[in-house]
Every structure is written in C-alpha cells, then in structure tokens.
Amino acid sequence: MKKIIGEFFRHFFSNPILPLLVILCSVVAMFFTADDREPKATQEKLESIRAVQQVRLSTIYSTAATTSTSTTSTSTTETTTTTVSVKSVPDGSVSVAPGGSNEPVPTAPQNGTTTEAAPDTQQQAEQPVISLPLTDYNVYSGADSPNSSFYQERLTILGDSIAYGFNAYGYIPSGHNIAKESMALGNMYKESFFFNLGGGAMNAVDATIYTNPSLVYISIGMNDIPGYNQKERGPDCYASDVYAIAQQIVDSVPDVTVVIGSITPVSANNYYTTNAIIDSFNYALETTVNSYASPQILYFNANSVLKDPATGAIYGSISGGDGLHVSGTGYGWVLNALFNYLDTTDTKSRIEAHEGTAE
Fold first, then answer.
1. What is the pLDDT of residues 244-263, one digit of tens each?
2. What is the pTM of this model?
3. Alpha carbon of 163 to those of 148, 160, 217, 331: distances in Å?
4. What share of the chain is helix, strand, coil (3-state, %, to 5)?
C-alpha cells in the first residue's frame, strides 16, 4: 500500500497541471458551498451596535390613544372639529397627547422649587404622529394661570425635536408648529428644514413671521451643543445667534412677544452631552437676553422646571425614554410654569394690541 501511495504522489507532483486543477476545484467548491451567515455571537454583537446607532436626537414622539370628547365650531366659511381631552385628577391638572389621549400631570414647580411626580407605571404604546389641522389641538385645562387658554391658543413654537414635542403631544396645532426633528441653528435655513404653511416653502424664521404670531416660544440648542462647544465659538456665540433670530421676528412682527426657552436637562451619564455643559449654554443665553432688556424678548428657564435638584438631571418620571427628550407630562409642567411667568409680564396686553382687541 505504501508503494502504491508513493507512486501516486510521485506521478501526481511530477505533472504541475494536476495540483493546479485540485486547487482551482477547491476554491470553486468553497465559493459555492460556504456558509455566509454570521456566527451567533457576532450577529448578536452587531445587532446591539445597530440598536445603539438608531438612538438619535430625532426621536419620533408617539403615545397611546385614549377616549376624547369632540366639540364642533362652525363659521360662515367652514366647519372644523376641535378635539378636547380633559381628565380630572386631584390637583385639577392634565397633560394631553396626539389623538386626544391624556395623562395626569402634577402642578408645575414654582419659584425654583420642584415636586417629583410619581414614576410612570405603564409603557405608552407607540403610534405614528399625525399632522393636526389648525383648529385641532387639546386644550390644557390644568394650568394655574387664568389666562392659560388665551396663551395656548396663540402659542407658536419654533425649534428642534424637543420643541416639536408641543405639537406631537397635542398642545399646539400643526399650523403653529415651526419645529422639526434634528433642526439646529446651523441647518435651519437649509431646504430640508423648510416649512409650507400655505405661502410656499420657507425657512423656519420666515415661516414663523409668515404666521403673524403674537406669541412665539423658541426652544433650540440641543443639536447645537457639539458644534458650538468649542473655544472659538462656545456658549456666548450660541446665545447671540439665538437672540438674533428672536430679534428678526420682533423686527418683522409688531407687538409680538418672543420667549426664548432654556435648553432642557438630560439624564445623568447621558451619551450625548452633560447637564453641566447645558447649564453653561443656558447661563450664556439668560445673560444675553437680560443684557438687551427688551420687553418683547423674554428668557424662560424651562430647564429648572424639569430638573431634579437632588440629581441635577431630568426627572426620571418625565424623561422621554432616551435620556434627551421630554414626556407629555413634562410639557404640561413647562406650559404651566410658562403661563404663570407670562402673567408677571405685559405679554397679554401686547397680544391684545397685536390683535387690535386692547381696550
């Protein structure tokens, strides 16, 4: 047997074509029969990486739908339906979401103090956000201010995905929403962030002016932190750019009140930024607004409304789930505090002057 095997290899390797054919056949066989599936461990690792990569600032706001009560208002030209959701709770406050859903909201903290809400006990089901007609929004009846509905009816929101939450949770109609996911100061003039409210595609500032608003709330900055958080730019440059937008609106719309809201807090150990950095941006923003002392451009500290003083981070019960965004409950807190703050200013009389209804 050894002699036979030896003779075979002697004749096999004496002809250079035969080994080459064997190698080629092996390569072809491997090509057509190889298993291209990832090993289970590797596949699970890749899936976890993909899941992390999908967490972006442009989170789609969604919430569970519950029952609502509809009331109908009729004008000489059209009939519209306004969805009103009211859910009584011990302190008389409510928060609302798209499609008429609602959830209890504790009264917003006042005078710099905070009261922690009970953690959410039920995960909200997700559903696509639906654009709301101009007259279709949920009336917020839980605010302390007697002028709550007056302000809410006129409130126009300008900003990023956090600002967009006011519309996504049903607090304002789509016609008053000049906010988009991932919008930042550096891209708000790009075509991908244009708005069409009936007068053609416009950038965010022009679209805001187009609506002839009497009350504007600006909330923008979370997406700007990485770009501005540099020595050559920094928080002061960010604050100046935000104020310039507010001033442009004031220059174009008589008697408008523009409220610049602070950047909202994030969860502790957040992957995106830190609350210390956010605080530095908000300090620059407040200092800039106060330095101009314009009666039409106001600073509102939304951050303090949502921040737990014990941790320095956003309350867990009002976090949107990704450590960056705010739940529907949190927007109720912000509105309650905002309306109370506006009552300490001459905003209401300025709105009435804007609309020609001042006595």
1. 999 999 999 999 999 999 99
2. 0.66
3. 19, 5, 9, 10
4. 40, 15, 45
